[in-house]
Amino acid sequence: MKSRLLVLHRPSSSAALRLAPPRPLSVPQSPRLRHQLHSQSSIARPRQIPSPSVPSPRPRHLSSMNHAVEEAKRAAAKIAVANHYPENARWVGIGSGTTIVYVVEAITALGVNTANTRFIPTGYQSRQVILSAGLTPVEFDALPTGTVLDVAFDGADEVDEDLNCIKGGGACLFQEKLVAMQAKEFICVADSRKLQTRLLSNWKYIPIEVAPIAAFRVQRRLIELGSINPAIRMNTDLKQGPLKTDQAFLLIDAPFKPLLTKADVDNGQDGSGKDGVWEVSALSEKIKEITGVLEVGIFSGMTGPEAAVAGGLGGQRPVAAYFGMPDGSVSVRKAP
Ligand SMILES: O=C[C@H](O)[C@H](O)[C@H](O)COP(=O)(O)O
N or C: at which end does the chain have fewer Cβ atoms within 10 angstroms? Predict the structure, then answer.
């Protein structure tokens, strides 16, 4: 199942800038302190649409690093759209986050006629991105019965060698999974910080969307499964309390040990949860079983084409993931 990494585009001049790790984490030591401490970490952060024209107050080296990251996302989006945006597209899923902005930018830059194309958002921010680009959104629950999306594009917080993803760092995951699973194929676009061998290598927690009334119960169960200090995500402004998703649910950010890949298990490692060591899909299924969990931010299992062969829809694993690299090139991992 292990994917190959291909470099698709390499520029002649190298930007030679290292990308900063994504969203540094500060995981609280005590579950009792979780609300307060999480509010001070970068975990609690409403998303902003990047606006390269807005002057940055940051030191120059930081702003050039950020610029390099944004350009890496843009480069990956451009190639992903060029390779996967269908001719005469009718239904296109649009994910959430900062990278998806460049996907929409790349779609509009194609210059194709979108009069008959409907774009399915995965939340409030996603809908705003679609509208700002002059495209037409249609809510997921307004799709005609039986509609299959031609393609769904989205970002990710981390992608492993099998193309399993962690998503939800920007507080969207449930609608993203709905949309990905309604599409013929899901295409992931990211920058090199997200490209890892195993999930939970650089990105340290799994976002889980939960019913508010069940949050503490779910938190306890996550600890039993081996999560180290799972924390309810707070708004940046503490006075606003826990962050609410588009469904008015809460998010629990659950750190675990790095997740085993299929190859790890094939090589004899135990991913059944012993000592808190899990294989990706095993953990995802276990978390999904907890009463009170709406959805888990692990996208694993079948791809769209695999689901079609199995007789239906339901692929949540991308068929390809595009990564903008620090040197300006774009690498792609494709599902075998
Ligand atoms: O919750 C947000 C989504 O899952 C995003 O797709 C993910 O967090 C990646 O976001 P970004 O493109 O901003 O890195």
Answer: C
